[in-house]
Amino acid sequence: MAEVRLESIARECRVQILRMLAHAGSGHPGGSLSVIDILVTLFFGRLRHDPRRPDWADRDRVVLSKGHAVPALYTVLAKAGYFPEKSLITLRKLGSPLQGHPDRTALPGIEAATGSLGQGLSISLGLALGLKLAGSAARVYCILGDGEIQEGQVWEAAMSAPKLGQPDHALDNLVVFLDGNQIQLDNFVKKVLDIEPVITKWQAFGWPVIEIDGHDIGQIAKALDQAEATRGKPTFVVAHTVKGKGVSFMENDPEWHGKAPKPAEAIAAIREVLGVAAGAWEDYLKTDAATRAIVDELSLLEKK
Amino acid sequence: MPAKASRAAFGEALLDLGARDERIVTLDADLSKSTMTVNFAKKYPGRAFNLGIAESNMLGVGAGLALTGRIPFACSFACFVVGRFETIRISVAYTNANVKIVGTHSGIAIGEDGYSQMGVEDVACIRALPNIGIIQPADELETKQVIAYAVEHAGPLYLRLTRQNLEPVCPPDYRFRYGRWLLLRPGHHVTLVGSGGPLFNCLEAAKLLEADGISAEVINAACIKPLDEELLLRSAGKTGHVVTAEDHSIAGGLGGAVAEALGEVLPTPVKRLGVQGFGESGDAKGLYAKHGLDPAGIAASVRKFLNR
């Protein structure tokens, strides 16, 4: 039951991701669509947070280290109530707090300035250690991209995390997800610089590693349970994902790493996300006023 | 007060401040015996973290700790810590994370270890970043005040310290103020703006110049960012000639900052004394002489600059 609810939220978030990227005219759909199920499971199934008190000291923290996927984070923050959903289409516009990459100085709910890849894990280690030193029960969730872990700083942090704070302040309040969508900007990860065998690498550095399907909300939740039960060490979760998940023409195509859909493409993608056949689309829109409004707005954009 | 390295004064100051402020933590990258945080680590083992030879991670961990209310002093040699510029840029400066970055072993005065351990571009790098101030104390008294100030200062700072002993230059009643310089010796022919190690040599040079009938005003520019533009303009307006002396590249450091500030408001001839090139192995005294940062070298540059 809970899974059905989260799947429904994830679907709505996918629609918003496509909508906001089309309005922005630039951005990163592929990695946003691959990470969204993890973010939805965290924000609506796990996180202890309060959108009315974004600076609450004992809140759980989410650090999206692969900052280019921030449209996905904006959709869950809006849905959780950090800001109105109508602001989503200000993404990347001058003066908007919805910067092209996460900006904690601009938008409450964002925990770290990321986007310069490789830095989020170190910040997460510091957050987790700081919370332990403060005696807080809050937890830290960090999300890395698979291309991102080619950055050297990630391995400095990977080597440090299972040892940092030991023995009194071990970082068992830290969970790291690898969004393993297998594609980076230039090409497939294995063609640019293969990161395999990724599981044995992290295990060798002292991390318990869990392997899951990153689009299966039940598996994501179970990994989170397992991490929460682990004492004395942070947990690494390898989430196998599909870049562009949910949109047939984006899936597994490096071209859609960093290219926004045109409004007509976004409409076609939204129809696919909602699982509506082309022939049934007009009839469907008569029954779904919210989607109708989004489609009308995109159609208007297409004509501009 | 006997001569003391600013890194040693830093280590002593931290011990005192750590007793009063639980928020203070130290981060090191396998150089805690050199950065002088080692005694803090002994006294407060739960608040000192050695991240290994991994400065980027150290800086990021510092940012995360700062975001949960700690006051981390992230320490290494100036060249190694500022060399992780991109992490400083985003995780610390853009984030405005309350991290105190401590670069010890600044300049060519480290001597024998040579070029690869000499931080001579660090000020230029950090100067380009918004949000983060730069302070280089010149003696023990000033260093201890600067470290105490750093704890109170909300926001990131870069603290540039020396390996070598520094002779006392500040008067006993001196009180450090952020963004304020100290007039150490009044004069009217030329303004000598020094910072850190070479400042004592500026005072010695002023004595040599006095014997030649040249009256040199000497200013201690501990705060490199922000500058004390008020004192700079007042002094430059009076003397009409400004000479800067720093153990740092002549590009982008204190001299660059002074020239930029004067150029916009009160164009004044400026002679920058500092390091040219990367540095090399040798004895500190010999290196300062080679780069014209010893008293005789500074005095000679001033005479030439004034055409006298």
Task: Summarize this entry quickly.
The complex is a heterodimer of chains A (304) and B (308). Chain A is α/β, with parallel strands linked by helices and 304 residues long.
Query: Main β-sheet of chain B: number of strands, strand sense, barrel status?
Result: 7 strands, mixed
Overall, the morphology of chain B is globular
Structural class of chain B: alpha/beta
The DSSP helix count of chain A reads 11
The CATH architecture of the largest domain in chain B is 3-Layer(aba) Sandwich
Q: What characteristic shape of chain A results from the CA principal axes?
A: globular
Spatial sequence of strands, sheet with the most strands of chain B: 3-2-4-5-7-6-12
CATH topology of chain A: Rossmann fold
Largest sheet: number of strands, sense, barrel closure of chain A: 5 strands, parallel
Average pLDDT confidence of chain B is 97
Rg calc of chain A: 19 Å
Number of domains of chain B: 2
Broad structural category of chain A: alpha/beta
The amount of helix of chain A comes to 40-55%
Strand element count of chain B: 14
The total number of structural domains of chain A is 1
User: In the CATH classification, which architecture of chain A applies?
Assistant: 3-Layer(aba) Sandwich
Question: What does this protein look like?
Answer:
The complex is a heterodimer of chains A (304) and B (308). Chain A contains eleven helices and five strands. In chain A, helix 1 packs antiparallel against helix 2 (29-45), helix 1 (2-24) runs antiparallel to helix 9 and helix 4 (120-133) runs parallel beside helix 5 (152-160). Chain A has a single domain, classed as Rossmann fold, CATH 3.40.50. Chain A has 304 residues and is an alpha/beta fold. In chain A, 43% of the residues lie in helices and 9% in strands. Chain A has a five-stranded parallel sheet with strand order 1-2-3-5-4, sandwiched between helices. By secondary structure, chain B is α/β, with parallel strands linked by helices. Chain B folds into two domains: 4-166, 3-Layer(aba) Sandwich (Rossmann fold); 182-305, Rossmann fold. Helix content of chain B is 41%, strand content 20%. Chain B has 13 helices and 14 strands. Chain B has helices at 6-20, 32-35, 38-43, 55-67, 78-82, 85-94, 122-127, 140-152, 198-211, 229-239, 254-265, 284-290, 295-305; strands at 4-5, 24-28, 48-50, 71-77, 100-104, 133-135, 157-160, 165-166, 182-185, 190-194, 216-220, 223-225, 242-249, 270-275. In chain B, the strands form three sheets. Chain B has a seven-stranded mixed sheet with strand order 3-2-4-5-7-6-12, with helices on both faces. In chain B, helix 9 (198-211) crosses helix 13. The longest helix of chain B is centred in the first third of the chain and has 15 residues, at 6-20. The model of chain B has no long low-confidence stretch (mean pLDDT 97). The chains are: A alpha/beta (304), B alpha/beta (308). Chains A and B meet through helix 4 and helix 5 of A and helix 4 and helix 6 of B.
